[in-house]
Predict the structure.
Amino acid sequence: MPPKSRFTRLDAFTKTVEDARIRTTSGGIVTIASLLIVLYLVWGEWSDYRRIIVHPELIVDKGRGERMEIHLNITFPRIPCELLTLDVMDVSGEQQTGVKHGIRKIQLAPVHAGGRPIDARSLDLHADEPAAHLDPAYCGECYGPPAPASAVKPGCCQTCEEVREAYAAVSWAFGKGEGVEQCKREHYSEKLEAQRDQGCRIEGGFRVNKVIGNFHIAPGRSFSNGMMHVHDLNNYMDPSQGSHTFTHTIHHLRFGPQLPDDLTKRMGGKTMEWTSHHLNPLDNTSQSTDDAAFNYMYFVKVVSTSYYPLGRQLRQGSIDQGDSSDLVAIGQHGLGQDGSLETHQYSVTSHKRSLKGGSDSQEGHKERLHAMGGIPGVFFSYDISPMKVINREERTKSFTGFLTGVAAVIGGTLTVAAAIDRAFYEGAARIKKLHQG
């Protein structure tokens, strides 16, 4: 027999000799059941370890000099595209008038004809009227105002569009271009007449400063008159041009890129599955009116929202993205190469009123009065929240926690199984002794 080690007396797991062990049928059954239970519980621990959840955090937004993208898809069934203008302005003093970059205007057939999209080649009234066929010595008159800076030939207005730009630069109304040689040559009035019953869908995206501001879709070309922002409403209000109204449907409006569908499902959990409507509450919103002088206003509170995939660390400190963000194509802003995503969610309240003033007595609110005046259209005023939501992917437990859980499962199951086996054995022994006695 080998000499005893000094550690022998510290052995907490004493052994019995093989001859002293008793094997029973009930013990075998309990052993098999306990092994199955251990396998099931270990598989549950592994599944729990592999499960990824989205953990939300709320922090102060320390970013500065940032830009954000606004993506929209809005249908106006009773206004032709030629009359609609998209303008953007903010508290920093920046203005974007007549936004075209990144924006598509799709002409729609009249409502009574189904409102289907018309061939894209007919979208621009001036697309087939280049000035290249004119005499090289020709210099078109601008009819009062100086030629616009964007004129093809400096000091001249070669096209109807350049005359319109010249009028807008000095805050003059343009109308249908009566008496303007370039517009007669391009048949501007006739084409405008042909579109009067059509509708328009505006879709696309544009980039703005991440400060308080607004963007609006209103009729006529816009210009500044002193400290006021005004629109040329002559063609919109002209009775001969048909009954135009700002009945509209907002198919989609979001600030920044859209969260992936699989992420929105994980964010909802088991009790409430998220959809894009949680981030974009104006989606599929419709408003209808028969009043041409009507104004719709949406007041939006924008909250910065970030998504960081598993293993992605939160960027610390302030971020100045003012210069680099303009180098990214529209639609790619906020998308990280590592799968991270910078976007925004928002809440919204709305208000509508007739520009003729009056009260809401028809709706049962005689005490509610509206001021007169304003610009017909759809206005979106957005404010930026100082808080930021961080949605970070995390595992429900660490690998160490997984190993601890496995050890607890094995130890606990075998301990309970041993107690059950002992109870069966002693119970059987006592019953046997009673029968023998």
